[in-house]
Design goal:
about 350 residues; eight-stranded antiparallel sheet; 9 helices
Length: about 350
């Protein structure tokens, strides 16, 4: 999931001073293979550090549980679930956080008509290998052979993911199928963490994990929303780095785009958002941005909408409560769901 948001400086500081809170920001590089930024208004720096310690402890736990690349000693995660022994997967007892993620993933599969499918690991791993090889050796970069992708596609049926909630076990009945939760894990983890903080009464916080932004309450006080800019997918346009500015107060925003994580084959860019039908990168848009009150849903929907036709995507958005979207078409035109503009504002770049 490529998300391209930059948090802007809060425009009014007077009310912040009135509350006795000051703005603090910290950056981390250890979770979900991306940059995490925590911004909060707290009364003391010590309070902010305590908050950051709590957030990063939880992020580390979710990262370790949901990774499909890294093993940890005496620790069961999705790598363990994907493991094959003697030609078959094992029934694996897992943490409840994995069970909940996989249940959510099945819900998103049904909600998006299969556009978000965590059972696509066999296909995505092929793209991952060819992309990395192409980045390491650009002159010899190649596309995966379609026959290889189609063979892998035979092993992407999410119904072969067997979840036993009562016993907290997971089993993949197809030995050639693997899970890849990249389209949902980051947003889902951020949402779980924010819900936990909200239950504790925490407010005035913004968490940005690789651009997947979730806000808790307002920025400085009860009258000042967080302000963010959605990056222009035309990254060479230095005069217009952002195409929309939005205000958030408890919502999340996620953007999927074709213009950052890609490699080049014979002069053409091939990004990482793979359509389950064509098994190729989606080509309908430059980017899709989703505003919602659920970061996990936003993560899933930004991927799904990127792969749907505009008519299909807009219908899905309009039928789903508390979701709005903006699509950037290949020619740069921006189109919106009915309520997206309610979150935007005019910002004068100084």
């Amino acid at each position: 999931m490529v998300v391209v948001l930059a948090v802007l400086q809060v425009l009014s500081f007077a009310s912040c001073k009135a509350t006795g809170k000051e703005k603090h920001t910290a950056n981390y590089f250890d979770y979900f293979d991306t940059v995490t930024t925590i911004t909060a208004y707290t009364e003391t720096e010590e309070e902010f550090k305590t908050l950051c310690d709590e957030i990063t402890t939880l992020l580390n736990e979710y990262h370790r549980l949901y990774t499909i690349y890294n093993r940890y000693e005496d620790f069961t995660n999705l790598v363990t679930v994907n493991d094959v022994t003697d030609g078959k997967h094992n029934v694996v007892k897992v943490d409840r956080k994995i069970i909940d993620l996989l249940i959510f993933a099945k819900e998103m599969y049904n909600k998006t008509n299969g556009k978000v499918n965590i059972a696509m690991g066999s296909v995505l791993s092929i793209w991952h290998t060819y992309r990395n090889e192409g980045l390491d050796d650009p002159e010899n970069a190649q596309l995966p052979p379609m026959e290889k992708l189609r063979e892998a596609e035979k092993h992407t049926d999410i119904n072969n993911l067997i979840i036993d909630e009562e016993n907290s076990t997971v089993y993949i009945s197809d030995p050639l199928m693997t899970l890849d939760v990249g389209a949902i894990a980051k947003g889902y983890a951020v949402e779980r963490i924010c819900l936990y903080l909200e239950e504790k009464g925490v407010s005035n916080v913004l968490i940005n994990v690789g651009g997947n932004i979730r806000t808790i309450g307002f920025s400085a006080d009860e009258n000042t929303p967080w302000k963010a800019g959605i990056e222009n997918p035309d990254t060479e346009n230095e005069e217009k780095p952002f195409i929309e500015y939005i205000e958030l107060s408890g919502e999340s925003i996620v953007t999927s785009g074709s213009y950052q994580r890609f490699y080049v084959v014979k002069g053409e860019n091939y990004h990482h958002i793979i359509d389950p039908e064509t098994l190729m990168p989606g080509t309908k848009y430059k980017s899709v941005s989703v505003v919602t009150n659920d970061s996990g849903l936003g993560d899933a929907f930004s991927t799904a909408l990127f792969l749907m036709t505009y008519e299909e995507g807009k219908k899905l958005v309009e039928e789903t409560d508390n979701v709005e979207a903006m699509w950037v078409l290949p020619d740069g035109e921006q189109v919106y769901s009915s309520g997206f503009k309610d979150y935007t504002f005019e910002y004068e770049v100084k």
